[in-house]
Design brief:
Blueprint: E1 11-15, E2 20-25, E3 28-32, E4 42-46, E5 55-58
Antiparallel strand pairs: 1-2, 1-5, 2-3, 3-4
Length: 69
């Protein structure tokens, strides 16, 4: 299933008990770090190496992404 995330154009992710959230696009995590300025404000990293603890991935219905397939 994780490999299918690389084909999803847009997803919203809540994790760590909803204390952290980010956008996911084609297997890449997009974060905003509000405690940083300049180059450290935005970060993009691969989802496969992201420090994932727990959470939920919300994918729009038109993404043609099925969790149970």
């Amino acid at each position: 299933m994780v490999n299918k995330l690389s084909r999803v154009r847009f997803a919203y992710v809540l994790e760590r008990g909803a204390t952290h959230n980010f956008l996911l696009s084609y297997g890449m995590v997009f974060e905003v770090h509000w405690d940083k300025i300049g180059d450290g404000l935005y970060e993009r990293s691969p989802f496969y190496t992201f420090e994932w603890l727990d959470g939920v991935v919300v994918v729009p219905p038109d993404a043609k992404f099925m969790l149970l397939s």
